[in-house]
Records
---
Amino acid sequence: DTGVSQDPRHKITKRGQNVTFRCDPISEHNRLYWYRQTLGQGPEFLTYFQNEAQLEKSRLLSDRFSAERPKGSFSTLEIQRTEQGDSAMYLCASSLYPGVERGASSTGELFFGEGSRLTVL
Amino acid sequence: KNQVEQSPQSLIILEGKNCTLQCNYTVSPFSNLRWYKQDTGRGPVSLTIMTFSENTKSNGRYTATLDADTKQSSLHITASQLSDSASYICVVSPRSGYALNFGKGTSLLVTP
């Protein structure tokens, strides 16, 4: 399977515990994004990397959240001292930038993983 | 205020019928508009992507249209199947920058 893979698919944890999610993007993709999605909502941007550099972080990403992409390949998203409000689906996506489709400053076709669902009790 | 608004919020149709989902956006200038299908508990999967200069794009039974003047897009599903039951998300990419603007999605249920 050469798509975006995420691990684990499901995680149940107690409030206050730390959790870490991993994302393996499509191998030739240089951009990697993390999104959070709650029920009935569209994905909300958290952060993105171009190669190993973290270029932008959303205000949603509190200091309890940290993301890394040390070698420009896989990425991890860690949540420390989890709270019940952190319960959500965490989606990873990757793309090749610049995109091949027409249009200036294209972000490239975005390919999503299956997501990691977090439940904080 | 969300820059991408989708309607209806949810829709129930009978198998075999057609339906049209709407997306209105205020992102300007924009680079492209995408429709994604998201099955429950899964990640979104791309259906179509249109640049500002394109009016229509088809992918099997899915046809997306775009009117850049009125800032509206629609996704038309022909001869619906039970497997079409999912959330359909409209995503608008600005001309500059990385940020994608996601709609909240339309939840479609196709019943036998």
---
Amino acid sequence: KAGVTQTPRYLIKTRGQQVTLSCSPISGHRSVSWYQQTPGQGLQFLFEYFSETQRNKGNFPGRFSGRQFSNSRSEMNVSTLELGDSALYLCASSSTSLAYNEQFFGPGTRLTVL
Amino acid sequence: AQTVTQSQPEMSVQEAETVTLSCTYDTSESDYYLFWYKQPPSRQMILVIRQEAYKQQNATENRFSVNFQKAAKSFSLKISDSQLGDAAMYFCAYRSGAYNQGGKLIFGQGTELSVKP
């Protein structure tokens, strides 16, 4: 069974631009969560989608948005990029949104904002 | 709000020895799950072990075991017979059992474990 895939793996953008990151969950998984990982703030929850609906959202500005498609693939978008948005963005998929289900993480997208 | 604290930024262990990584958490909930995740350098994060708060018995997975002290809100990870492949960043994480919290994991700051041959 293929694991969680994220594209692209690396991105370099400049301040003010926008970016879209993609996550394909494990086949059959309907829940996708997104996390931002930085040296200073650690791992922080961005949002979770289940069956195309956002179930939960972390404490991030409105510049961060996401969506999920009918095939469970998910995208997150960051508009008007700031230097502080440089981070590793991880997505994780799970068969359901229930707490006991294991989340499987992708390799991440490394975003650098210049 | 729930918080997770890992007070050891770095730990080191000799190959074949045992090491314990510490984690404390704060919550007012009674239904929750605790996890230890491993993130090797430049590799994907993987689940090491999971503990349900309602279970009194400590979880064990091969060389990995936890010491879950619910009253003290402590959740430490013990790695026995350490191997070179255990070298990684280890994250302690909390997940609420409340339905409206969904898949949200709250992570500690991580402990970087090095294994000396």
---
Amino acid sequence: AQKVTQAQTEISVVEKEDVTLDCVYETRDTTYYLFWYKQPPSGELVFLIRRNSFDEQNEISGRYSWNFQKSTSSFNFTITASQVVDSAVYFCALLPVNTGFQKLVFGTGTRLLVSP
Amino acid sequence: DTEVTQTPKHLVMGMTNKKSLKCEQHMGHRAMYWYKQKAKKPPELMFVYSYEKLSINESVPSRFSPECPNSSLLNLHLHALQPEDSALYLCASSQGAGVSTDTQYFGPGTRLTVL
């Protein structure tokens, strides 16, 4: 079974705080991809990052960083020094090989509220 | 350029109306997708077109009819919808369905209200 769990439904922080969004996935495939998307109130899903199952290197992009650990099936996302513009719903998603890499399996999303 | 455009942004229709949603991309992508998203839920896949052929239909009711006239365009024809079909409809495209490094890029969506 393919599944993505985002246990945090909603997180509220004050601007400049660091925040980590958790993502745990389940798959029997050895080849798969993991994604994070941001959905601001406007509705568009914005692609943030893609990671393949063979690359466990952490990645940093500006204030964003991602920690991928196969041993715990987790792909967590940290925002450093959060800003009001980071307020959005964040989805973690799994793209497994057994769907021909066509079907994204989304988590339920984490709503992040950053207040000034 | 990773832009996917969708029109209209908002649509209100009655249950007896026929309307269409339109999606366009000019990234040379060969796979296009329709998703439905209800409030506070993740997107749900409806259809996938790969090289202009329907490759996945997630058991969507026939009142939703997709069409892919060419590799850049994707339409979703709506007929006799129900109020529970009110949702955000998202279009996405990717380089080619089945390509392992594929990333889906999403449009801004059409907010549909069925009265």
---
Amino acid sequence: GENVEQHPSTLSVQEGDSAVIKCTYSDSASNYFPWYKQELGKRPQLIIDIRSNVGEKKDQRIAVTLNKTAKHFSLHITETQPEDSAVYFCAASSGNTGKLIFGQGTTLQVKP
Amino acid sequence: EPEVTQTPSHQVTQMGQEVILRCVPISNHLYFYWYRQILGQKVEFLVSFYNNEISEKSEIFDDQFSVERPDGSNFTLKIRSTKLEDSAMYFCASSELTWDVGELFFGEGSRLTVL
């Protein structure tokens, strides 16, 4: 079935450094790839998304890249800040029901 | 900013009891979803709902589960005969469209604890 693999499971960086989280997906029909940030006990919140007709998208300190051939996409956070500390989930969607398949999550810790 | 609301925020129930989790999606949204997240794990798709019927469901969504839109605003998830392993955070979500996949807006979640 559809599967999304996410790495690393934990990531610790110093404030100001960059962080990269990578995901691979199995369903070649996937066409929408959102990234969610989840703080402890809170709902997942969309931080950036990319569609299959685009290779890269940037929003201030956050960027996402997509390689359809290799079926992987990555989240890049530059100039990390302590408030970026959270669990980040990638997801992929295909078909016409809007179902999202989530990766396992990455716990990002930004040390001041 | 419109948001998805869920009640209750936390429910504790005895094993074997039935629970109903309620959600009010964003008013102009047409697609509704339930996801669950077992503590410390990933978010898992349960079911999608459109035009008053289930459009897709996962293997998790067996006969123990049902969804309903009893009126024009509420979207409910019923879990019959709860089991210990049903303990999780249940998130409702809604989106405006899926033919060109739109953003899913998640509610704050309902934490279910089965004792």
